[in-house]
Design a protein that fits this description.
This protein has helices at residues 6-13, 39-57, 72-79, 90-96, 145-152, 170-178, 189-194, 227-238, 244-252, 267-273; strands spanning 26-31, 64-69, 85-87, 101-109, 114-115, 118-122, 136-139, 163-166, 184-187, 204-209, 213-214, 218-221, 255-260. The protein has 274 residues and is of the alpha/beta class. The chain has 2 domains: 6-111 and 215-273, Cypl, domain I (D-Maltodextrin-Binding Protein, domain 2); 117-210, 3-Layer(aba) Sandwich (D-Maltodextrin-Binding Protein, domain 2). It is globular, with a radius of gyration of 19 Å.
Length: 274
C-alpha cells in the first residue's frame, strides 16, 4: 500500500501543460480529489515529465507550467479559470463535462483502460451491500460521493443507506476495518492489488465488484485550445512510454501506455451519471 495508486501515478506521469504562447505559459491543472500526495512531493517527477513531453511535442523548453491540488475546493477554483488542459478525476469530469472539456487520453494498466472498484469487509461479517445498510463505509473513493453512488454503485443505493465516511488514506481505512472500527471499505483496483502485502490480508474479503469503469481522462478545454494543439498534446502522451526516458517511469508504476480517448470512451459512466 506504500506504492502510489494508479491515479497518483497517472498524475505524476502526466504532470505537464499545453504549449505556451511567445509571451506567457499556459497552465495544466492537476486535480486529484482526496489524494494524500503533496504538491512538493510531486515536483521532482513533474519536472522530469514536463521536460520529456516538451521534447516529444517539439515545444520550447520551459514553456509549460502546472497547478496541483488534492482538495475539491481548489479543484473547483483552479478549473474555474478554464485552463487549456487538465488532469481530472472521472467523477469531477462527469459533473463538469458541459464545460467544454474533451477527453484526450487515458493510461492502460495491465492491458486494460478500465478499473474495477471493490467493497471490502472482514471475512464472515457481511455478504452484500444490502446487508451494509446503516453501517459505516469508508475509503478514498467516497471523497466524491456522487461518483460512488451513481457510477460505482450504479445508482442502486442512496446516501442515506449508509454512514459514509470519506478518507484520503486507503491503508488507514483498511486498518480501521481490521480493527472493526468501520464495517466496510471501498477501494480502487490498484489498492486491491496491494492488499496481499498487508499482514492482515487474510482477514478481509470483497463482497462487491463494480462493472469495469474507464480510468480517469486527460482533458482539453475545447474553447481554449485548437485542434492542432489537442492533436499534438495527445500524440506526445501516446508516445511517452515508448521513449527511453519515459519507459522506466511507466514500468515503475505499471503503466503500459497512454492511449487516445474520446467522449464515447465514457458512454457507460455518463449514462449512469444521468
Amino acid at each position: 500500500m506504500k506504492r502510489f495508486s494508479v491515479l497518483s501515478a497517472f498524475i505524476l506521469v502526466t504532470a505537464l501543460a499545453v504549449s505556451a504562447s511567445a509571451q506567457d505559459t499556459r497552465q495544466l491543472v492537476l486535480c486529484y480529489p482526496g489524494g494524500n500526495i503533496k504538491a512538493k512531493d510531486a515536483e521532482p517527477s513533474a519536472k522530469a515529465m514536463v521536460e520529456l513531453v516538451e521534447k516529444l511535442g517539439g515545444w520550447k523548453a520551459g514553456t509549460f507550467s502546472s497547478k496541483f491540488t488534492s482538495k475539491i475546493s481548489e479543484c473547483d477554483k483552479f478549473l474555474a479559470e478554464k485552463p487549456p488542459f487538465a488532469i481530472v478525476s472521472l467523477g469531477w469530469w462527469l459533473g463538469h463535462r458541459g464545460d467544454n472539456l474533451i477527453p484526450l487520453a487515458q493510461p492502460k494498466i495491465q492491458g486494460s483502460t478500465d478499473e474495477i472498484f471493490r467493497v471490502m469487509v472482514r471475512k464472515g461479517t457481511y455478504k452484500s451491500l444490502d446487508e451494509l445498510k446503516g453501517k459505516v463505509v469508508t475509503g478514498t473513493p467516497l471523497i466524491e460521493g456522487d461518483f460512488l453512488l451513481k457510477v460505482i454503485f450504479a445508482g442502486k443505493y442512496k446516501e442515506s443507506d449508509f454512514e459514509l465516511r470519506p478518507s484520503n488514506q486507503a491503508l488507514r481505512s483498511l486498518r480501521n476495518l481490521k480493527d472493526r472500527e468501520v464495517e466496510a471499505v471501498v477501494i480502487t483496483a490498484q489498492q486491491y492489488q496491494s492488499i496481499d502485502a498487508l499482514p492482515f490480508a487474510n482477514l478481509l474479503e470483497p463482497i462487491f465488484e463494480s462493472a469495469p469503469i474507464p480510468i480517469m481522462p486527460v482533458v482539453a478545454n475545447e474553447k481554449a485550445t485548437t485542434p492542432e494543439e489537442r492533436k499534438r498534446f495527445q500524440k506526445a502522451l501516446t508516445s511517452f512510454c515508448d521513449h527511453k526516458d519515459g519507459k522506466q517511469f511507466c514500468e515503475l508504476f505499471g503503466i503500459d501506455a497512454f492511449v487516445p480517448a474520446n467522449a464515447s470512451t465514457y458512454s457507460a459512466p455518463k449514462a449512469l451519471w444521468k
